[in-house]
Fold this protein.
Amino acid sequence: MHLDRGQLAALAAILRHGAFDRAAAELGITQSAVSQRLRGLEERIGTALVRRGPPATATEAGAHLARHAEEIGLLEARTLRRMGLTPGPARIRLAVNADSLATWIPAALAGAQRQMPGTTFEIEVDDQDHSARWLREGRVSAAVTSEGASLQGCDALALGALRYRATASPAFLRDHLPEGLSGPTLRRAPMLVFDDKDALQSDWLRHHFGPGPLPPTHRLPSTEGFVLAAEAGLGWGLNPEALMSPGLTAGRLVELIPDSPWDTPLFWQVSRLLAPALAPLTAAIRSAARDVLVPA
């Protein structure tokens, strides 16, 4: 069976934007033409590929075909670059943890784009302990994850460790820990978490003070907001050293246990099929990681 590239491009654009009109705008065709291309592909495959929504979402078959279209685009772009020709647009979907995205990933993507002109990136943000799920489900081509064992069909490369420090503001310490730091006092003091998957604070607390109940918790799904909340005295939490150092130097933050960094090892897991096409990205990821991460 031959798959029409135009029909695949329409499917991928619909799922990327969740809407037929925005897919049409990206492709430079009419909304009616987008619908016709999708209808033709669905008739050829013999099953629905898109749940019309809104937003438009993929069926299982649609997700597989959209992924296939993106993979073909990446492989084609690599071939054209090797021939000294200018490739058309290609898109790379990645899963990345929020703290890496807020610190070193943008520099890596910029470096990769200089080597892969025309490439755009689509980032799915997830906790480093869960980002590998996106690779297992075939929804991304590579991921920054805490899983060091190679996933099926993937290569795993150690990047180093993202260093955190448990911090709070001086005012927070006066208000909530006037008796000093201990397991019982810290478990009564408000704690910050990024989301329901964020176990950094609870792991750090258990490591230093043993098992026990969790403190009252503020949920703040923003890396930058996390640092600002700690500086404002909303709660205590673990912040990436690269982001909290200015606050620590200026006295807006205090490390709860001095000189007690908490390191989270990170790995780059990349689809083995696409590894050659993604080699410039992998090189840029490893280079940027060396500048920010510490040896694991």
Summary: The chain has a mean pLDDT of 91. Residues 60-82 form the longest helix (23 residues). DSSP finds 13 helices and eleven strands in the chain. The two ends are 48 Å apart (CA to CA).
